[in-house]
Design a protein that fits this description.
- By secondary structure, this protein is α+β, with helices and mostly antiparallel strands.
- The protein contains four helices and seven strands; from the N terminus they run βββββαβαβαα.
- A hairpin with a 5-residue loop joins β1 and β2.
- The chain starts with a strand and ends in an 8-residue tail after the last helix.
- The relative contact order is 0.13.
């Protein structure tokens, strides 16, 4: 897995990332840039940036339908990723641990069980994709809110409609005949 800057024809620099074999090449996403501050862009950490040695896979027997195959073959995958001892940047670690997700236990270990498919390889890819989604969700930041004030015409329209509604309600009283 390597990173190298690549100069494109338009004069901008792109980051080219070589992706490990365990990432599904068909589902490979472009590297996403998120706006960290007003003018600074930072690179999002993805599963492809994590060394394989830090992700632990174990095959277990899947539950649910599948006939005799379910009882014989261990096709489900348990993915375990220790956030605290990982090589992730400290900011990403803290954001991941702050997430209120049931897959992150009190020790800071992410446990993902994938058993959707009947093959171990597909379940392994699915567990990596779900870990990637969790990483992306933890790094997403909302755009900062800019304070605005209503325009004069909007204030005038609101007050006019309040006056109109007030007069309608005031005139709902009993009619006195003299």
């Amino acid at each position: 897995m390597g990173h190298k800057p690549h100069q494109s024809g338009s004069g901008s620099t792109n980051l080219i990332v070589t992706v490990p074999e365990y990432i599904n090449q068909g589902d490979l996403h472009q590297r996403q840039h998120t706006q960290c501050s007003h003018h600074v862009f930072c690179l999002m950490v993805r599963v492809s940036d994590i060394p394989e040695s830090q992700i632990e896979f174990s095959a277990i027997r899947a539950s649910g339908p599948g006939g005799q195959n379910v009882n014989k073959v261990s096709t489900a995958i348990h993915l375990r990723f220790d956030v605290k001892t990982s090589s992730l940047p400290e900011t990403v670690k803290s954001k991941l641990l702050e997430l209120r997700d049931t897959r992150i236990n009190t020790d800071g270990v992410i446990v993902i069980k994938a058993q959707k498919f009947r093959s171990q390889e597909k379940n392994k890819l699915e567990s990596l994709e779900r870990l990637d989604e969790l990483l992306q969700r933890s790094q997403y930041t909302d755009k900062p809110r800019r304070k605005t004030r209503p325009s004069r015409s909007a204030v005038r329209k609101r007050l006019d409609s309040k006056k109109k509604q007030s007069s309608i309600k005031k005139n709902r009283g009993k009619v006195d005949d003299y």
